[in-house]
Amino acid sequence: MADIAKGVRAFTIGTAISRVMGLVREQVFAHLYGSSLSTDAFNAAFRIPNLLRDLFAENALSSAFVPVLTTQKQKGRDAENLLASNILNTLLLVVGIVTAAGIFFSPTLAKFIAFGFGDIPGKISLTGKLTAVMFPFLLFIALAAWAMSILNTEGEFFIPSLAPAFFNLFSILTPIALFAYYTKRGRDPILAMAVGVTVGGLMQLLVQAPRLVKKGFRYKRVLNFKDPEFRRVIALFIPVAIGLSGSRINVFVNTQLISLLEERSLTWLNYAYRIMHLPLGLFGIAVGTVALPAFSRLASEGKLDEMRTTLLDSLKMVLFLTIPTSAVIAFLSSPLTSLIFEHGKFTAADTVPVAKILILYILGVPFISVLRNVAGVFYATKDPKLPMMASFASVGINIVLNLTLMHPLGYSAFPLSATISAVANVFILYLLLPRKIGTFDSRPLAAFALKLIVGGLLGGLAGGLFYKILAGSLGSLGSSVVVKLLIKLLNVILSGSAALAVFYGICLLLGVREVQGYVKRFTRL
Description:
Elements: H1 5-33, H2 37-56, H3 59-73, H4 77-104, H5 106-113, H6 123-134, H7 136-153, H8 158-184, H9 190-206, H10 209-214, H11 228-258, H12 265-300, H13 304-331, H14 333-341, H15 348-362, H16 365-380, H17 385-409, H18 413-432, H19 434-437, H20 443-474, H21 481-509, H22 514-523
Helix pairs in contact: 1-8, 1-12, 1-22, 2-6, 2-7, 2-9, 2-11, 2-12, 3-4, 3-7, 3-11, 3-12, 4-7, 5-6, 6-9, 7-8, 7-9, 8-9, 11-17, 12-13, 12-15, 12-16, 13-15, 13-16, 13-20, 13-21, 14-15, 15-18, 16-18, 17-18, 20-21
């Protein structure tokens, strides 16, 4: 069995720093802008390059690039560099053209994706301006994903996972530096946030460059669409991109539908989504990212037995990491939201809907995390078509649910539908898994997950009760804003720690001995 714990630990540490910086970025955003017409416009505009982000970057690129690059690595450094350079030059050409077109057609794109904003004067126009400013982010983030794929193939996970921290850092510094500049000139200061996104995307790319050189990458002037290895990447990339386009279509449709709801709905959903992405990025994406190169190596060597064992280990690991953290966040959703965002223009009235949305989003984190690992098996065995079909099925379910539930449930329909569709996607792929790796006994995994759920619920409940007790006893210790914030932070840390301690104890009582093994593997130097 390939032990992925060391890579997961490195990825998680880097991602933890990045996610903390991401939350700081959202805090700055909430403090400076709160929830308003401008924040709705920004969130809608940012979704436009993000609609293409998964197609040209991150999931699609790594899922297609890493398996083929792993094979080329076995042939030597020159073969590896040749393929990497060919992919780089292709991205510069194709994504560069798409970026230029996106900037030129930004007013039309804004009208298309957020047509519901048309009833509010100036909202569509602002969305278009923000779209034009942020579209270069697409090119930079695609190149950053290319660099990440190469480093992951080389067994390097810390720097690629840390790179988004630089995106977040410059997304923080830029609006702070430019806020007064735009305000004094009578322009909407939300434009400073858009500039920060583009600058941050560039920095996410540049910070990985030195490590690429150290790992042995040397640029080659090549653009050969007939190269067999390049065609293998494209043969994998197209179905993956088509499959991911389903989720992007889903985001696109959701944005249109949300624009018809009460004002600030899109902003509230975005804030909750950011918190939800903390455990997903720290654990779900971490395990999936590290597992993909391991799956690819085992698939190329034909070691299906070892792949099944590694898959079971990765699934248990990701459930061990995501179930308790999701439970803690669900039970502490309101104090967490208040702690992170309730400053400046973000008020207690905003905390209530964001916390409600967060609970519905967080329920899907374990399923999305499992999906990432299961899909990795299909990509490693160079079969992206089945995940593509499962993706479109889940997208269809999501859209139908949103259309059905948005009127009775309002904005709550969207996180609920996202969770249900993630469950459906996992279920479909899990049924298809034996086609790739043979019989996979899921009974041990199901029993393991059930015990984790019991431990997570009891731990989360204990954490929620503990928070209420602490809030009642410590709430009168200070009246200043800083003291209240520190008390709230202390309460959340102590309550979360108590919840995880209860979870760990319940698991031991239920005989889940694996939890001790995972703790040792993650803390072992």
